[in-house]
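4.2 Preliminary Data

To establish feasibility before requesting continued support, the project team ran the inverse folding procedure on a target of 560 residues. The structure was first converted into the token representation described in Section 3, and no sequence information of any kind was made available to the design step. The complete token record follows.
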């Protein structure tokens, strides 16, 4: 944080003495106790909430006392299975009221939770397992086939205990060691083995897509998560009752395996006493019905859902009672003037707020906390509390002042420890002074607002999911009829961006666009699929061989 002897511009937060931008938000206090894990930190917070999680489709719910009893019981069983500090435990599951219970149980022991997308293929999951080396996995019966042929003990979520084998035609000799249901019935044992856990110990290992195509494990500590929780609590002031006098209610529309969902729904909001209504998967009707049925006050979402709310506003208001809704929280990409004003016109009683963060910053970075701030159109918001920023010229390495464009660097208590077993990637992203190179090209204006201009990382944003072009390019280069390829983001009103491939055929090939799309679709999760193809004679590249994606993007969008 800023020192008293620094000359800091109160309007922008910029210090000319060291070219650092400091947050204009009120600083948050962080616990000084070094022997503190995220689970204990959350469970020790006082609040007046009663219902913690509700399953939107079944109505089944967990009270806060039931959550913490379940966490203790599951932790006891994990300890009995030999899970210890530093062990990695994999969680493959759709959103569930039990997802947070598993995460908090694992982290309470000092073990490390790693999550993965249920849409991922067996091949993609196998890669993550090979990298993270989990000693145990939690999954549902329907997802068991994705573990076929892997020697990994499984705890089954939502099914009875089959001690020897998984069931189903596509499952061969999967060892199921217990079920979550049985674990939650276990009497907690206070004398169980529990290693001393410190704030600097690793808590989560979430995988973030990179431009190289190699997914990297982001190592976040208990301190990182504690800082994230404190930031969320400070931002929304959720300890205060809503306008009805009761706790706030959120509907979980985003995946819990992702940092957005994990930060907000599996950890952060639990500390506030808020009620979280969980959708197992996103469905517009289910979301709107849940808002009406459970009198939801906060709706976190990604821009494509926001656009759908605008486009279908008349039908929605006629069919659903969403009058309790107070705020929507958008993340994933900055919102345009048209979207913001379109939403406020259709839903005048609902505030629109935004957030910016990365897996590498535990989802924390910048935010707009009022409608007035969101109306600084195109902004990602003001720096989060305790967060510092630099704008660096990528060519010269010079730290730039207000209204100059360069790469955004961030430093703060939620910034990751590094990439798992990848010192080269860690060194290239996180320097010795704790500055994280975000890969986002930005500027900070005279009032301290961050504006994202472009991405150095070139990730494609499909429905809020990140799709690395290089991963798809590497796949397509394995096709026997592809000589060269480049993948770019193509704008789409419904989903944000879709992956588009420019393909150079090998001599004599009559490869079709459907051949290309089908080849990729067989090997990747649905959100990564190529959805548009164009054939060219050559891929434009600079002298060093780097693909000139901007030229291809310009070509692709020139006829829009």
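Position-by-position output of the design step:
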């Amino acid at each position: 944080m800023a020192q008293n002897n620094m000359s800091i511009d109160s309007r922008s937060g910029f210090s000319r003495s060291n070219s650092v931008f400091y947050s204009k938000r009120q600083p948050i206090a962080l616990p000084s106790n070094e022997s503190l894990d995220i689970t204990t930190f959350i469970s020790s917070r006082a609040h007046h909430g009663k219902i913690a999680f509700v399953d939107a489709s079944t109505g089944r719910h967990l009270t806060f006392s039931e959550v913490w009893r379940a966490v203790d019981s599951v932790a006891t069983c994990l300890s009995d299975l030999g899970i210890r500090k530093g062990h990695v435990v994999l969680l493959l599951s759709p959103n569930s009221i039990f997802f947070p219970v598993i995460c908090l149980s694992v982290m309470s022991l000092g073990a490390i939770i790693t999550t993965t997308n249920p849409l991922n293929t067996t091949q993609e999951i196998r890669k993550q397992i090979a990298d993270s080396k989990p000693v145990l996995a939690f999954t549902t019966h329907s997802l068991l086939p994705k573990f076929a042929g892997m020697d990994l003990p499984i705890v089954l979520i939502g099914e009875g205990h089959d001690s020897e084998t998984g069931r189903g035609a596509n499952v061969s000799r999967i060892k199921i060691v217990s079920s979550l249901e049985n674990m939650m019935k276990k009497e907690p044992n206070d004398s169980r083995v529990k290693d001393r856990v410190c704030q600097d110990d690793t808590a989560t290992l979430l995988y973030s897509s990179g431009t190289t195509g190699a997914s990297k494990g982001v190592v976040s500590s208990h301190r990182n998560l504690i800082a994230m929780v404190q930031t969320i609590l400070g931002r929304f002031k959720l300890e205060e009752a809503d306008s009805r006098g009761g706790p706030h209610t959120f509907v979980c529309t985003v995946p819990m395996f992702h940092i957005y969902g994990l930060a907000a729904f599996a950890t952060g909001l639990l500390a506030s006493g808020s009620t979280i209504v969980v959708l197992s998967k996103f469905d517009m009707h289910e979301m709107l019905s849940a808002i009406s049925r459970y009198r939801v006050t906060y709706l976190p979402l990604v821009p494509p859902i926001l656009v759908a709310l605008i486009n279908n506003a008349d039908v929605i208001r006629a069919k659903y009672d969403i009058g309790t809704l107070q705020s929507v929280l958008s993340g994933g990409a900055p919102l345009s003037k048209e979207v913001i004003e379109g939403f406020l016109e259709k839903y005048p009683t609902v505030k629109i707020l935004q957030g910016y963060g990365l897996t590498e910053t535990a989802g924390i970075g910048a935010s707009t906390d009022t409608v007035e701030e969101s109306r600084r159109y195109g902004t990602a918001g003001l720096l989060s509390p305790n967060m510092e920023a630099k704008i660096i010229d990528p060519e010269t390495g010079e730290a730039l002042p207000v209204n100059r464009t360069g790469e955004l660097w961030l430093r703060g208590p939620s910034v990751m420890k590094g990439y798992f077993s990848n010192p080269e990637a860690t060194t290239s992203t996180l320097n010795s002074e704790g500055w994280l190179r975000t890969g986002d090209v930005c500027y900070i204006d005279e009032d301290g607002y961050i504006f994202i201009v472009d991405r150095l990382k070139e990730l494609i944003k499909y429905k809020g999911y990140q799709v690395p072009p290089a991963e798809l390019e590497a796949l397509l280069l394995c096709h026997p009829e592809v000589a060269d390829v480049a993948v770019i983001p193509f704008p789409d009103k419904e989903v944000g961006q879709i992956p588009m491939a420019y393909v150079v055929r090998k001599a004599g090939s009559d490869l079709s666009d459907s051949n290309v799309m089908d080849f990729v679709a067989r090997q990747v999760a649905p959100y990564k699929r190529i959805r548009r193809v164009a054939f060219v004679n050559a891929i434009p590249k600079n002298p060093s061989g780097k693909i000139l994606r901007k030229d291809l993007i310009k070509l692709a969008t020139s006829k829009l």
